[in-house]
Amino acid sequence: MRTKRTVGVYLRYILYGLLAVSLAAYAIYFTQNPNVNDLNRFLINAILGLSIFVTLNTGLLSLANAGFMAIGAYSSAILVAKVGLPLFLSLPLAMLICGIVGLLIGLPVLRLTDVYLAISTLGFGEIVRVIIVTTPDLTGGATGANLSTGFPFERMRQTETWMLVLFLAFLIYLFYWLDRSKTGRALRAIRQNSGAAATMGINVVYYRNLAFVMSAVIAGAAGVFYAHQIGSIDNNDFRFSKAVDILSYGVLGGTTHWFGPILGAGLLTVLPVSLREVFGTSVAFFTQLPVIINGLALLLVVIFLPGGLFQPSRYRHKEMPINEAEIADDVAVSKESPPLVEGEAVGPPADALPLLELHDVTRTFGGITAVDNISFGIPQGIICGLIGPNGSGKTTLLNLITGIYHPNRGRILLSGRDITGLPPHLIAKLGIGRTYQNIRLFNDMTVLENVVVGHHARIKTNLFTTWLRLPQERRQEALARQEALGLLKRLGLLGFASQPASKLSYGDQRRVEIARALALHPALLLLDEPAAGMNDVETALLAEFILTLKRQGYTVVVIEHHIDLIMQVSNEIIVLNFGKKIAQDVPVEVQQNAQVVEAYFGQE
Fold first, then answer.
1. What average pLDDT does the segment 567-589 reach?
2. Going by C-beta distance under 8 Å and a sequence separation of 6 or more, which residues neighbour residue 161?
3. How many CA atoms within 13 Å lie on the side-chain side of 62?
4. Average pLDDT, stretch 476-494?
5. How many CB atoms lie under 10 A from the CB of residue 210?
6. What whole-number distance in Å separates Cα of residue 81 and Cα of residue 473?
7. Residue 157 shares a structural domain with residue 276
């Protein structure tokens, strides 16, 4: 492992060196023989790199970009050459067409993942090429869109270098602010753990489709510029190899920051040009040189440098100064709940309906019944312990409550509202926050970013407010950061705010997960083994914190194997065994229950 890491470090230096030398050689060549075609090719490839970044940054392995590039190129060519529109009008129309097609394709295709998604999107690209070939009256068919098929060269060739520079700068502006917004955090959270993202109120289906459509629109714009840079286009310009080239820009440059694909596009575009000037085009294998470079670079990066050349998460998390004025001392967990500060006990009214109700809930996996006909109610303002031997169905029950699983039978109600079968993000918005038995933090994000993700459902902004930098955007982002810092301070984690979550100890990661769940402002907080991995001191502090929540009237369900902790904090305890509820009572009675004793220790 150490050898692999060392090779990766040296490989990064070598590739950066090659890029620097290539840029220097190209600069010298360009000053002596100005050729804007090479410069324009790099700018178009950089735009394509940003198009693949959107999907890769969301964890989607899509090979559809060559197809969308073709749609953009041919749409604009038809609008310019046959309809007579100028480029500044054909560009947005072609992008709109790509966006609509991306939405229609994305709705069914994005249900797939990993290699299945890659294969289906690759098939989409080939379908686009077939349509181009089989509609010669519109596209020029197999002959291509050129002078002989009704696409005059002088009308087609309209792309200027300043247009590409302006458009790329515009995209960089959009991605710069997107990275710092609610949408950007949602996309990164989905890439790292889509299940945890959903239980933070993030609509995974919506954001995956949004990323796919954005990728389609940007790739379509690159196709427009490409068509009007070359002056004629052919369906062979958008073959499988083009999809791989676009993917290479992102994988080589890096998928965690928008600058990575631009870097990758620069290396894979400029290096062949520089070698051409050094060796000339007479070299027998020169036409295959870009393919060789792409393949070799990808092979080395995938093996020795996963994550790509540019990985800002490795060095951008410096100790950031925190202004004490930014920290919220009073952190409200819900609009209806009091602030998270010490105070008088708040109990539920005597006639209050249960906050959470389960009626005959059953869940099976094949022939195994994990949760068997369970019913109970949890009043507002209590701490309920949920215990049982390993495999008794405790975590499965939490997954049913939060919508990760759907029950085969039965109903789940929150404040009298039936939430059975709702998706996790809607259940989270209704007021159920949770932690996990196996920690599910967003490890490439800082501790502060993790907690801010918990505010996702309450930040009422969108892409346009982000890009326009409206006061509402800045105000809500500042408030989310302020509350997140307040939660970190309450849990003793303020000193780790700027650190990557993956660098913290196991116990500290547990506390970060609790802070993230509280950031959701939950009416009901579900803690799945929160003390796991904590020492005695940390466990005692956790118990004190849970009791603070109890005194404030918050409703908490705790799964825990630390029986002393459960007995200390719980108002009542529910005991499961083999998926069945065998007891529900106050702690003293549960300790003396014969069925509970038998479940834990067996019969004498």
1. 91
2. 36, 39, 40, 43
3. 34
4. 91
5. 20
6. 42
7. no
CA distance 583 to 594: 10
Residues sharing a CB contact under 8 Å with residue 521, sequence separation 6 or more, in sequence order:
332, 333, 334, 335, 337, 431, 433, 458
Burial environment of residue 137 by CB neighbours within 10 A (0 to 12, 13 to 18, 19 or more): exposed
Task: Report residue 272 as tokens.
Answer: 């062949």
Q: Domain with 363 in it: what CATH number?
A: 3.40.50.300
Note whether residue 55 is domain-resident. Answer: yes
Amino acid letter, 339: P
Q: For residue 485, what are its two tokens?
A: 């810092």
Q: How many domains does the chain have?
A: 3
338 vs 159: which has the higher pLDDT: 159
Q: Count the helix, strand and coil residues of the chain and give each as a percent rounded to the nearest 5.
A: 60, 10, 30
247: in domain: no
Extract the tokens encoding 31.
């000053």
Same structural domain for residues 40 and 25?
A: no
pLDDT digits (tens, 9 = 90+) for 203-240: 999 999 999 999 999 999 999 999 999 998 999 999 99
Residue 348 lies in a domain: no
Where is pLDDT greater, at 39 or 374? Answer: 374
Residues 6+ apart with CB under 8 A from 418: 411, 412
Give the CA dihedral 588, 593, 599, 602, nearest 10 degrees.
110
Please tell me whether residues 219 and 282 are part of one structural domain.
Answer: no
Whether 11 contacts 301, CB under 8 Å: yes
Is residue 470 included in any domain, yes or no?
yes
Say if strands 555-559 and 409-414 run parallel, antiparallel, or are unpaired: unpaired
Is residue 399 within 8 Å of residue 412, measured between CB atoms? no
Q: Quote the mean pLDDT of the chain.
A: 85
Predicted model pTM: 0.88
In contact, 44 and 233? CB cutoff 8 Å: no
Residue-wise pLDDT for 100-129, tens only, equals 999 999 999 998 888 899 999 999 999 999
Residue 225 CA to residue 229 CA, distance in Å, equals 6
Identify whether residues 222 and 264 lie together within a single domain: no
* Angle, alpha carbons 596-400-597 (nearest 5°): 5
Q: What are residue 577's DSSP bridge partners?
A: 580
Q: Are 445 and 453 in contact (CB under 8 A)?
A: yes
Q: State the residue for tokens 């996702």.
A: 456
Are residue 67 and residue 13 in the same domain, yes or no?
Answer: no
Query: Both 113 and 174 in a single domain?
Result: yes
The neighbouring-strand residues paired with 357 are: 377, 413
Q: Which domain holds residue 16?
A: 1-34+260-316
My answer on whether 30 and 50 are in the same domain is no
Q: Domain check: are 403 and 275 in the same one?
A: no
